[in-house]
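Before surveying the methods themselves, we first show a specimen of the format, giving the amino acid sequence and C-alpha cells:

:::
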Amino acid sequence: MVSYIIRRLLLMFPTLIGIVTITFLITQFVPGGPIDQIKVMLKGHAGAASEAGGAGAIKGNKSGQEIDPEQLEKLKKVYHLDRPVLERYLRTFLWYTPKNPKDPFIERVLNYDNWDGFLVFKFGNSFYRNKTVLELVKEKLPVSLSLGITSFFISYIVCIVLGIAKAVKSGERFDTITSVIVLIGYSAPGFVVAIFLIVFLGPGDKAIAHLIPLSGLTSAGSVGYDDWSNWDKLLDYLHHLAAPLFCYMLGSFATLTMLTKNSILEEMKKQYVTTARAKGLSQNTVLFKHILKNSLIPLITGFPIGFLSMFFTGSLLLEQIFTLDGLGLLSYQAVIQRDYPIVLGSLFIFTLIALIGQLLTDISYVIVDRRISFEESQG
C-alpha cells in the first residue's frame, strides 16, 4: 500500500508537468496575446474618441492605433515576453533568482524568496488585475465554497435517502414518479432553468413574483444591511443562494440516486441477504445492517474527490446569469483576456487537486473493502 502511494505521488509530477506544458505551448500559438489585447483596447478608445470629437479626434485615432516601439518593449518586459520561450517555460515551473548574490550559497539555495514557479507554489501576478493568482483565487473562493459545500452535502444526503427509498419500493408508483422527476432534472440544463427562474421569478418588471434577488450572495452594500442581526443576514444569504444552488444541483441527483438504488438492488439478490432473512431478521435490520454496508461502497469511495472539488467548484453560465463573481467567471475572463498566469496557475491548482482526490479515492477503496489489495493486483 505504501509503495503504491509513493508511486502514485511520483507520477503526479510528470502528469502535472505534461498538462501545463501542453497548455503553455497552446498559449504560444493562440493569437491575441497580451500585447494584441492592448492594441485592440487602444484602437477601441481611439475609435470612441473619433466618434465623439470629430475630425480633430480622427488624427488622434490614426496615431493612437500604434504603440510606440519603446513602450512596446516596456510592455513586453512587464509581461516577460522579452525573454526566450524556453526561459519562460522553465520559469513557469521552477526558476532560481538570488536576491542577494553575496549571501552564502547554501543560504541562497534554501531561501524560499529566491525561487519562483508552480513547483514552489508561486503562480505569479495577473497581467491586468495587479494581484497575484493566489489572491484572486482567494477572492473568488467564497462563491465557489457556498455552491460547492452546500450542494455536495445536500446531494449526498438527499440522493442516499431517495435511493434507499426507491430500492425498497422498486417497481411501485413512488419509484416511477421519482424516476421521472429525477431524469427530467438530469436532462434539463441548469443554465436553461436559471434563465426561466430569472424571467419569471427574478427582479425584472415582467416577473410573476419577485423571489430571486438582483445579484451576489448577500445584500451587502444596501441601506441598513450593517444594522441587520446575524439571523437576518443568514436568511438573506440563504435567499440569495437558493436559486443558483438549485440550478447547480439539478443534474447531480440522477446519477447518485440511481447509483444508490441499483447498488442496493444488486446486494438484495445475493445469498447472504437470503440467509439473513431466513434467520428471521427484520427487513430494517437486513437493509441497514447488512445491505447498506456493501451497497454504499461506490458512493463512499467517490467522497474524497467530491469533497476536494467542492472547494473549487465553478459554473460560468450560472455565475453570469445570477451575477456571481466566482472561479468559473475568473477562469473564463482569464482565457478571453489571455491572462496566462491565471490560466496556467488555476489549471495547475485544479489538476493537482483532482490527482490528489483520485489517489484518496483509490485508498478509500482499500479502507472500505478489505478484499481489495493493490499489491495482489499488481503481482
User: Anything to note?
Assistant: Confidence is low (pLDDT under 50) at residues 48-64. The two ends are 13 Å apart (CA to CA). The longest helix spans residues 133-168. The longest strand covers residues 95-96.
